[in-house]
Structure formats: structure tokens, C-alpha cells
From TrEMBL:
GO cellular component, one term: mitochondrial inner membrane
UniProt-recorded name of the protein: Uncharacterized protein
Species assigned in the record: Zingiber officinale
């Protein structure tokens, strides 16, 4: 499938991504190579994790009950 020497962890991720895309019929032949899929995965992860890493978004944002908007008023601490 992939020629050359690759990092085993990266190869596992790329193989999983490739298998998923192929099973859904969403992998055009011209993009079916190791480096293209790896770049896609890196960009996907950067989009997901980048705002958190840069401090633009809280890591729990969008995860349901962990939102700070749901703190009961009697539990709010006021610092003076």
C-alpha cells in the first residue's frame, strides 16, 4: 500500500483514515497516497486542536454539561 519507511504511529493513523474514506467511497484515486493523507490528517487535527492549544477556546467548550454557563447561581464565587 504505502512505499518507503514511515513512522509506525503515523502509518497507523493514515491507514485508518484511508480505510474509512475508502469504505465510504470518499477517497479519489489521485489523493490515495501516504503523504497526501498524512497532510490531510495533520490539517484536520490542527483545525480541531489549534484553537485550544492557542488558548482561543476552552478545551471543554462544546462538550455538553462541562460548560461554565450551567453553574448554579448559589455556587458562583465572587472575588472582591
Amino acid at each position: 500500500m504505502f512505499q518507503g519507511v514511515h513512522d509506525p504511529n503515523e502509518e497507523k493513523v493514515v491507514k485508518s483514515l484511508r480505510d474509512t474514506l475508502l469504505s465510504k467511497g470518499q477517497l479519489p484515486e489521485k489523493y490515495d497516497d501516504y503523504h497526501t493523507l498524512l497532510r490531510f490528517w495533520i490539517l484536520y487535527r490542527a483545525k480541531q486542536d489549534g484553537p485550544v492549544v492557542l488558548g482561543w477556546r476552552h478545551p471543554w467548550e462544546g462538550h455538553g454539561d462541562h460548560s461554565h454557563d450551567h453553574v448554579p447561581e448559589d455556587k458562583v464565587l465572587i472575588h472582591e
